[in-house]
From TrEMBL:
<protein>
    <recommendedName>
        <fullName>peptide-methionine (R)-S-oxide reductase</fullName>
        <ecNumber>1.8.4.12</ecNumber>
    </recommendedName>
</protein>
<dbReference type="InterPro" id="IPR011057">
    <property type="entry name" value="Mss4-like_sf"/>
</dbReference>
<keyword id="KW-0560">Oxidoreductase</keyword>
<dbReference type="GO" id="GO:0030091">
    <property type="term" value="P:protein repair"/>
</dbReference>
<dbReference type="InterPro" id="IPR002579">
    <property type="entry name" value="Met_Sox_Rdtase_MsrB_dom"/>
</dbReference>
<dbReference type="GO" id="GO:0006979">
    <property type="term" value="P:response to oxidative stress"/>
</dbReference>
<dbReference type="GO" id="GO:0033743">
    <property type="term" value="F:peptide-methionine (R)-S-oxide reductase activity"/>
</dbReference>
<dbReference type="GO" id="GO:0005737">
    <property type="term" value="C:cytoplasm"/>
</dbReference>
<dbReference type="InterPro" id="IPR028427">
    <property type="entry name" value="Met_Sox_Rdtase_MsrB"/>
</dbReference>
<feature type="domain" description="MsrB">
    <location>
        <begin position="50"/>
        <end position="171"/>
    </location>
</feature>
<dbReference type="Pfam" id="PF01641">
    <property type="entry name" value="SelR"/>
</dbReference>
């Protein structure tokens, strides 16, 4: 068992006495007021075992993409990437974000105002006790990050991504063929 998982479990257990029906109501209200726009998935998901992805990725990228790990804030070179281009999934190369939607959120991770329509899927995530929306590549299922409702106008969304889960392809360079 990973140390992080154990620590998250201890934090969750310590917080249980403080969770009341009142706080559950606040979470439910927050869920109702969240307006994240999720477009229907438009790509065909891959049926590839995680072990095959492990052979194609660095150990760090594999942990982020297929074990839902999180890289250290401020550690990604993509934080300082300001050229025009496309951000693709580091596993299967599906385009996920266009550079015109990237912004500096001050969080230490590459952040975007919106993904490419139909190229991400979402699920609920309670790992840090509070409800978050995790998103992943719609093609390979690789974990990318979390989406929050504290982004800039007009959408108000912050798609906070692990840099290890992305590759940047500058404008003018051909996108690599999808792999998988």
């Amino acid at each position: 068992m990973k140390r992080r998982t154990v620590l998250e479990g201890f934090i969750a257990l310590a917080a249980l006495p403080f969770v009341s029906s009142c706080s559950r109501e606040l979470v439910a209200e927050k869920q109702r007021s969240t307006t994240i726009k999720i477009d229907p998935i438009t790509v065909t998901p891959l049926e590839k075992p995680h072990e095959e992805w492990r052979a194609l990725l660095s150990p760090e990228a594999y942990r982020v993409l297929f074990e839902e790990d999180t890289e250290r804030p401020g550690s990604s070179p993509l934080n300082k990437e300001y050229r025009d281009g496309t951000y693709i999934c580091a596993a299967c190369y599906l385009p996920l974000f266009e550079s015109q939607h990237k912004y500096d959120s001050g969080t230490g991770w590459p952040s975007f105002t919106q993904p490419i329509s139909g190229h991400v899927g979402t699920k609920r995530d309670f790992k840090l006790i509070m409800l978050r929306t995790e998103y992943h590549c719609a093609r390979c299922g690789g974990h990318q990050g979390h989406v929050f409702t504290d982004g800039p106008p007009p959408r108000g969304e912050r798609w906070c991504n692990n840099g290890l889960a992305l590759r940047f392809i500058p404008k003018g360079e051909p996108l690599p063929e999808l792999r998988g």
